[in-house]
Amino acid sequence: RGIPREPGSHWAEPGCQSCICQGGRVLCDTVSCSIPCSHPLPAPAGACCPICTGCLHEGVARAEGDVFSPSDGNCTVCVCLAGNVSCLSPECPPGSCPSPSPADCCSCNPEKCNFRGRTYAHGARFSLDGDDCTTCVCQAGEVECSFTPCPLLDCPQHQRYLGPGQCCSTCRDPPAPTGCFLDDNGVEFPVGQIWSPGDPCELCICQADGSVSCQRTDCVETCPYPIRIPGQCCPDCSAGCTYMGRIFSNNETFPSALDPCLNCICLVR
Q1: Average pLDDT value for residue range 42-55
Q2: Where are the domains of the chain?
Q3: Which CATH architecture has domain 179-216?
């Protein structure tokens, strides 16, 4: 590389290469790192070998003398010393514990429950003899009993029903409707009843489920002078003619209201 080297001299090249001048030739090899610790830190910038002035544990760099707990916890305590990580777990006494909690470091076997001549494991749930409405649970040697919780009902009180042997009430099915009740006039129509709500062109029927279905009548027959009969939806073009407010029968003649010299005749076609 244009630089003279003395025979037997050593130097470092980029890429962690170690070179030596020997017999007029340059011999290079990758630097061999001797790591005297179990959890070294990565090599700093410009260096080739990891260092033991700290610890790398579970991907986290720890300073020299740092005390920490591993990710899986369980009350284990670790310390970083000269690149080595040493962990200690608590010593748990043998036997059972009266009231375990998730924060306890030591695992234990909770006490069983002796209740009415039977033995239940910790956490076991059971019912009293002949009473399925009461639920009991064994908690570290003690039995606690309470009524079985019932679901909330969305029906009114008069529709609730408690059957024989049941712990919780249920909702009765509402009675089938016998008719249609109209709030506007307070009239109740039986199922199948057909009526007009006031408009002769509209007819309503009471359905089996208590609902009201209405439909309008479309008039398709037209004529110049139809007769409109009170209470009838469509005008009548076959009974006669309406002229100037008067009703004339078929083939009946009458004077014109515009010219007294003209006579008119009602023709149904």
Answers
A1: 86
A2: 9-88, 113-147, 179-216, 222-268
A3: Ribbon (2.10)
pLDDT at residue 39 in the model: 92
Segment 12-36, tens digit of pLDDT? 887 788 899 998 899 988 888 888 8
Nearest to 125, CA basis, from 141, 144, 109: 144
Contact criterion met (CB below 8 Å) for 84 and 38: yes
Would you say residue 239 has pLDDT above 90? no
Give the position of tokens 């470091």. Answer: 105
Predicted pLDDT at 102: 45
Question: Structure tokens of 81?
Answer: 């010393």
- Alpha carbon separation from 159 to 10, 173, 266 (Å, rounded): 99, 8, 67
User: Long-range contacts of range 195-204, CB-CB < 8 Å, 24 or more positions apart?
Assistant: 200/231, 200/232, 200/233, 201/233, 201/234
Strands 202-206 and 212-216: antiparallel
